[in-house]
Design a protein that fits this description.
Length: about 550
Amino acid sequence: MISEYKPIKKLNPESVSKIAAGQVVDRPVSILKELLENSLDAAATEITVRLSEGGLQKIVVTDNGIGIQAQDILLAVASHATSKIREASDLKKLVSYGFRGEALASIFTVAVLELQSRTADAEHGTKIISNSTETQPVGMSIGTTVIVSELFSHHPARRKFVRTPGYEYKLCLQLIEKIALTHPEVSLRVFHNEKLVLECRSETLLERILSIWGSEYNNQLLELNMNLGMYKLSGFIAKPQRATHHGHHQLILINRRIVSHPRISQQIKESFRSLLAAKKYPSFVFELTAPPELIDVNVDPQKTTVRLAEEEAVSKMIDHSIKSLLRQHNLQFGVTTAVEYPYQMDFGIGKYLAQKTELWSLKDIEKGEILQIDNLYLVVENECGLLLIDQHAAHERILYDQLIRQLEKEKIDAQSVPLSEPVVISASASEVLILEQNAELLTKLGFVVQSKDNNTLFVQAVPKYLQKSTITSLFTELLQNLDTGTRTLEVSETIHRTVAYVACRSAIKAGEPLTKIERYNLVQKLKELPDVYTCPHGRPVSVTIGLKELAKLFERI
Ligand code: ADP
Ligand code: MG
């Protein structure tokens, strides 16, 4: 953000050659992005956007920023002219969104552009319209208005790539929502075809998230705020219950720039892993603030990709900070169930039945008893209400955590049980290869296996949990599980898959009757784990039906 006026200057050819080149103006949303970034760079606190026909007909952005001085206004629309950097080396300390000095110039070539601007010390504004090299005075308040119309009217080829006004409008709105989340302190008004469609006053980030994503995020957001060396991680992460199927509620900001950074997205998801149901995306506004010299924004002309100098370290920090944030909050995988029964006990047939029927009581059921239903679900009363547990998923999860913990401590070898005689398994060359690639991990888990002639495996010992399994089929499945085709797995992913597999095979199955003691042990073990919501494959381990939900279910509230 720029707080004091700097004249616009042409960049020298050498700097121009170092700046990522390419077309940035391909559809209304890309124009809108450039205009909004310019307003934000000009320290605007109020921005109004007016779109007609999804921006295809007209885009108007008005701001109350620092404006452009009359003598600079022609330069503003000139190519490679910018007030934000003087030479390419300034990119190392960049604090603005813009730096290429190309946006207005490119818009100028594909549309009719009108630029009006007034600085605080000017008596009036100055305006310039496309195809004219003359400026004119104009009455206006301090700030800038850019009007873009007749987009691609002289570029039929490009017009072909844009879609319907409805679609272009959706893209514009999605962008505006993201930018709104990036700058909650800026008031924003958006009109589409002259109808007010979005209005946000200046507010905190938390308030802004609720304004944009909706009030269902109320009390569902955990604040992230950590300083780690030169980096700061901040923002809000929604509780796992608010994970979405669409994945649109994810925003990654690096030094306030909206970026797509697959590694960071993946890391955040990974850090959530045990808490998320399969195929769900966590919701978050995640901001990384880093010294500008450790970030390269000059990667693509749209500036949506940035390179981090210390990507590995940043990934680890994210993992650490998100996991500890989630652990601080004791969350439960929950359901909301509301059944609408029209029955009323106090009148009509209800009243009649109450008078006629002798009611019986259930009081003699022992408190704290754990019921098993369908040899699969355990039913437990807890302080929140009713806890339902999937016995297989829960046991699997407990074993998974145990294995991981043991693996971390490298004590797992002690758990290895030698077989009375080695089991010989014939395997394909690729299976032998997979085994060799994962040899270290398998050894740590307690397997002792040797390969011979590229087609035979000798299994000499297995983890204690698996001693009763059919070793041959276990191994075939295990190898299949580790085989990911051409995709090479990260070490952590391999460990996860293997351990998840071993845990799954060793866990009690659905359909197994459990004794009272076994039920009790399972529930106790589950309670000891810090943050368990899903099994290693992402299915829920337990579901709480809270007292409130129960009350709703029985229409008490
Ligand atoms: P860049 O943002 O990369 O510098 P642009 O073509 O987007 O290039 O803008 C050129 C220049 O015009 C900017 O450097 C800035 O000085 C000025 N400018 C553009 N939009 C605004 C605005 N809304 N408020 C103030 N100055 C602006
Ligand atoms: Mg710009």
